[in-house]
Design brief:
Largest sheet: 8 strands, mixed
Strand order of the largest sheet: 1-2-3-4-5-6-7-8
Order of helices and strands: EEHEHEHEHHEHEHHE
Strand content: 15-25%
Shape: globular
Oligomer: single chain
Length: about 270
């Protein structure tokens, strides 16, 4: 068992105390339909009845970190392998379909100390049962600078890594990171992928943050041009969020906002509100 304490500043608006935001997941869950990944079998490397994350995003469907403190237990690599093997074998016997085996869950998956071993086990099981499926990791990129995390992410088909804003101050507003966050460090770590990763960005607006504002949008596009990811996933709020007053963008609005990058040849997947 491992325990973590993640601190983040208070939100700028009134926060809702709504426990139904907590989408507590088993170690292996689904498959579920993903807007971005198709039929996705999820893996949660975090507590089944808690939340551990280095971000405390204002839009997180799992709620605030402070509301997910009841369970600090992280599954071991052996537990993950057993649960995944059982589920994959069952789906194979049923003739099921999986497009992606996706590490997501209730927080930041790379916080599990056995993350590199779990990736190796998952790739071996994928090859055995569903070799056509992709292995994807949804990460906020706060730990990509750690060598063993970087090396594990290099092995998967889809390392999907987040940058929501172009400065530490703006990241503070939307993602509310734990102390010590450095966007410059994240960018430097992402350079090591040499473009072989997927950049994920949330577009939203509220009284104190607007993804479409020039100081946010132009700076973000400059980061995209610097890192040149093989694909960009731009999406917007589509589920209940813990912060009040958040607004979504339509797909047409987001396409207009990223038009300069599309014209430059970047591959961008755009997902508006359903």
């Amino acid at each position: 068992m491992c325990s973590f304490t993640i601190f983040a500043p208070e939100a700028r608006l009134v926060q809702k105390q709504l426990p139904y935001f907590m989408l507590r997941e088993q170690v292996v869950f689904g498959p579920v339909h993903s807007r971005r990944l198709g039929s996705s079998l999820g893996i949660n490397l975090l507590p089944e009845n808690g939340k551990i994350c280095t971000f405390d995003c204002i839009y997180c469907e799992c709620g605030w970190n402070r509301d997910g403190l009841g369970d600090r237990h992280l599954p071991s690599a052996a537990q993950v392998r057993e649960a995944l093997e059982e589920r994959l074998a069952g789906l194979d016997a049923e003739g099921g379909r999986i497009d992606s085996i996706t590490f997501s869950g209730d927080g930041e998956p790379t916080l599990n100390p056995e993350f590199p071993r779990i990736i190796d086990d998952t790739l071996a099981l994928r090859d055995r049962f569903f070799p056509q499926a992709k292995v994807s990791v949804l990460s906020n990129a706060t730990r990509v600078h750690i060598d063993e995390v970087f090396e594990a992410l290099r092995k998967v088909d889809n390392p999907i890594l987040k940058i929501d804003a172009p400065t530490d101050a703006l990241v503070e507003l939307i993602d509310r990171p734990a102390p010590g966050y450095s966007l410059a460090r994240v960018i430097e770590a992402l350079r090591r992928f040499e473009g072989d990763f997927v950049l994920q960005t949330m577009f939203l607006k509220c009284s104190y943050f607007d993804s479409s504002a020039p100081e946010c949008l132009n700076g973000w596009m400059d980061i995209v041009r610097e890192l040149r990811p093989r694909e960009i996933m731009v999406y917007t709020l589509d589920r209940p969020a813990p912060e009040e007053g958040l607004e979504s963008f339509t797909e047409e609005q987001m396409r207009s906002l990223v038009r300069p990058l599309l014209d430059e040849g970047f591959r961008i997947q755009i997902k508006g509100k359903s």
